[in-house]
């Protein structure tokens, strides 16, 4: 039986808060977090929490899902250009009745990202949805 | 480094081999390559494979194959680089022979995928992506390529059907290859009507799930002159890597690892793209063919679709690709594909490609890509 609890515990910062890393020596901002800056090779990057706002870079509707995602199919996935610069690959949500288009504003929310497996652990994490307009 | 040649090739048919195991397939291809070379001696075995642990419940695969082929106690190692495992296994053999450590090295690429249903194989293939930041989010391998394809269509004003010539060409060439899996010709209409996997990617954009094994016998060029087959020299062997996650690239539509490995290969062989007579590229999805042709210098950015539309990728074109069907037409047993590409390049350069023969071919390039462009292995062969 697969037990992945430590893995998802380790990922809680990036999965729940969109925590990546920032280089102390150059303007590099990274998601997912990295140990070493790929542009200036500085080690010891610091945690950096992204705003969760961005625009849609690309998207696709998955009709043939991998194991563990069947109950959600069909579902949309995308790549999002975060307002701080990096791209992120993610699932999209609340998108069934929306005509997705490249460049549309999106925002991060926390949702269930895969079905519970034998050990009963439901994985939650970031997804992106079309950005809601503010009401009064 | 010594000059290195390929002195024997062998392959099984690519198919759904329900009555054959991963060991059976590897042993058959090895026997065919040894018979082709007419050489008894083998010093080492490198097995290119991606998924034996996941899909056959078997690691320590190289020992299983060496044992099955009655080659004990030779050195035997499995080489894994996702879908580029086959190319990487040849690279390991090239280094071993070129450095003088070994003289006669067998390379076998093998994959057994059809014991599982599609969702299991889809999950297994996603192991080539970033486990925490791609696969765990339900982003299948086809979906990653779909994200690339939609972005490419957006940036270059392309339509999905503009990608059809790649699949039409692959099936037309596969029809001429007795070892290929998909030997039925297809039309643009078939392509457009094919069921969607992850939009805009459909079934006919994608290489199919299958089983197969291909093998090579590699030796120093000095020894190769004494064998019965016309030796084919490895003029270049180069590999490069890029970020594992597709989103972490400065521009996901620039396949930098593919470009870097090709650039190094051209420099080693002292050749340019215009000198290449045929290119066995990694057409796992039509968008991969497009990005590879652009990264390797056969087309400017945004213009590979035009190359295909003008018929220049066909057997009589100026840069024939997937000449015996490619991954799309021959089939893509993932860890074996890189070795099939080299077997087919050797057949072309020896003039043994039958109805699919590219006339007068003397220089061929084979390129194996793993992940969504995160590792690339390029070989240039010549006679």
Short note summarizing the structure:
The complex is a heterodimer of chains A (136) and B (383). In chain A, 9% of the residues lie in helices and 38% in strands. Chain A has two helices and eight strands, in the order ααββββββββ.
**SSE topology string of chain A:** HHEEEEEEEE
Give, in spatial order, the strands making up the sheet with the most strands of chain B: 3-2-4-7-1-8-11-10-9
Strand content of chain B: 15-25%
Helix/strand class of chain B: alpha/beta
Q: Report the structural category of chain A.
A: mainly beta
Rounded to the nearest angstrom, the distance between the terminal CA atoms of chain A is 50 Å
CATH architecture heading of the largest domain in chain B: 3-Layer(aba) Sandwich
Task: Please give a structural write-up.
The complex is a heterodimer of chains A (136) and B (383). Chain A is mainly β and 136 residues long. Chain A has a domain at 5-17 and 51-130: OB fold (Dihydrolipoamide Acetyltransferase, E2P). Chain A has two helices and eight strands, in the order ααββββββββ. In chain A, the strands form two sheets. Chain A has a five-stranded antiparallel sheet with strand order 6-5-4-7-8. Chain A has a three-stranded antiparallel sheet with strand order 2-1-3. In chain A, β5 (75-82) and β6 (87-91) form a beta hairpin. The longest helix of chain A is centred in the N-terminal third of the chain and has 6 residues, at 5-10. Chain A is globular. The model of chain A has no long low-confidence stretch (mean pLDDT 92). Helices cover 37% and strands 18% of the residues of chain B. Chain B is built from 14 helices and eleven strands. Chain B has helices at 22-37, 52-56, 61-68, 85-98, 118-125, 141-156, 164-174, 188-193, 221-224, 256-269, 286-295, 304-309, 326-330, 334-350; strands at residues 4-11, 44-48, 75-79, 105-112, 196-198, 201-202, 211-220, 232-241, 278-280, 363-370, 375-382. Chain B has a nine-stranded mixed sheet, with helices on both faces. Chain B has a two-stranded antiparallel sheet with strand order 5-6. In chain B, β5 and β6 form a beta hairpin. In chain B, α1 (22-37) crosses α3 (61-68) and α4 crosses α14 (334-350). The longest helix of chain B is centred in the last third of the chain and has 17 residues, at 334-350. Chain B is globular. Chains A and B meet through β4, β5 and β6 of A and α5, α6 and β5 of B.
